[in-house]
Write a structure and sequence with these properties.
Radius of gyration: 18 Å
Number of helices: 8
Order of helices and strands: EHEHEHEHEHHEHEHEE
Strand content: 15-25%
Length: about 250
Amino acid sequence: MVKRILITGATRGIGRATAQAAMEQGLAVIIHGRNQHRLNQVQQALLTRYQHGECRVLCCDVTDRAAVSQACRQLPPVDYLVNNAGTVADAWWTKMIANQWDTVIATNLTGVFNVTRAVVPRMRAGGAIIMMTSQGGLLGNPGQANYAATKGALVSLTYTLARELARYHLRVNAVAPAARTDMTRPVIAHLRDRNGGQLPAEWQLGSAAAVGRFIVTRVLPAPQTGCVFAINGNQVGYWTPPQYHARFPK
């Protein structure tokens, strides 16, 4: 039986790279996006490259709960879900407007709720859910309070759902990637300008293709649940949960 993977936000960047890696591994792929024309283009490109593969499309806005629910009711059984759809609206806290906060929360966090709630009933035992988090969500990142808040929340959601969904034999993990994508390129350009063309060590990023291969070949089949995996180029690792210390910090 061919296993099936649904990837949200799959028309570019890490989402598209994950879809490509999945088809390379012989998975049946469902790519999600908001733009039907763009979805059709990506679908055609993938089917042209992998002529014996299976690639379907799912078009809806993850922030529209009713639309997500209706679209997912048409899905065949799913083995893997990668919650990759996301957006940024960066600003310093004192300049951030309500719309920037609301938009990022609606897409990156509530969108994950909408999709995951609709898809879990259609998932086969032994499957896995991947949440896409970031180092900013784990450690914070100035200028990204809204984005970091959503990505930190997804870590907590990963820990919680790993426990709740174990009874259905579903694993839930997160991936904190570092990659050059459409979302990170503006930040990289800003940092280069500010630092005379040089990038800080933590912004020496790998590729979206490397992240996609990592998700498909190493994270999806991993036996762990409730784990936050990390990748930057050839460097891979994982983050441990916060630890309690029975003393006040000095």
